[in-house]
Sequence to fold (344 residues):
Amino acid sequence: MNVTQLIDTANAMMIEGKGLLAMDESNPTCNKRFAALGIAQTPEARRIYRDLIVTTPGLGDFISGAILFDETLRQQTNAGISFVDALKKAGIIPGIKVDMGARDMAGFPGEKVTEGLDGLRSRLVEYAAMGARFAKWRAVITVGDGIPTQACIDANMHALARYAALCQDAGLVPMVEPEVLMDGSHTLDQCLVATEKSQHALFHQLYQMRVDLRGVILKPNMVLPGKQCPQQDNVDRVADATITCLLKHVPAAVPSVAFLSGGQSAELASQRLNAMNVRFKGRLPWVLTFSYSRAIQQPALELWRGQPANITSAQQALHHRASCNSAARRGVYNAAMEKGPGRS
Fold:
């Protein structure tokens, strides 16, 4: 394990004013989003869409890293250039999602555990040889009646830590994603409790597995009420609860916190990240940035709808959302920025 290389990569991913683009949707998830908009659910349609993303002019001005799916890592642009090389040319570090998805946890109704450790060592070696420099593993924690259980939290955080150790051994920076889901009617305070338990367990397991935290990226959820909760707390309350949780549980050695969007609207995801960077600027040991998927992609996807004539406008919308989140990363985002392309 080359610790210096891992630290350098992690720091390069967190360059000032930039964040990460998650374009690592599994084929079923991507197909579901395509179907909702009347787009063909084929490998070629997925490739064309990802070509639209990767070749967006100026994307590297705001995006420092992109998380790919296995299929995408092996595909090429319309010009015959691998997506990995196209990203590198744009100044974007390529990464790869390596978990095999969340499955029902035996004996624990309503809870899931992420699979994918079997054979992971050899897959990481292959991905590194193909040009990936970081990886991602997602664990999902559901808030509900009597859940999450400690058993579910421990099982998922143990798997995250084992994955992280294997990544560093293979020379890849591990992005660890303990996501407390927005689905449900739980309150912000209930989300806070679940998020605190998850982050506490995660870093305990990372220490146990001897993972060097200087070469790790944390991708957490923001502390939010569930989508169906009647009380939707304001931006400042979300910012305060999220940062309080992080300060209590995330060691200063971690270089960055790159939030997932988790189903938030594009504008709210920008507003909440901006509030954190405004309210806590200069008081935090780690960089606060974004690692969004739908909160960057969705406006572009809705404009594109599989039509070649819409590619330029879709790319403009993608560029606009990336620029908004870059501004939020710097604490200078404002509502006036939403007058750009792709405004919903």
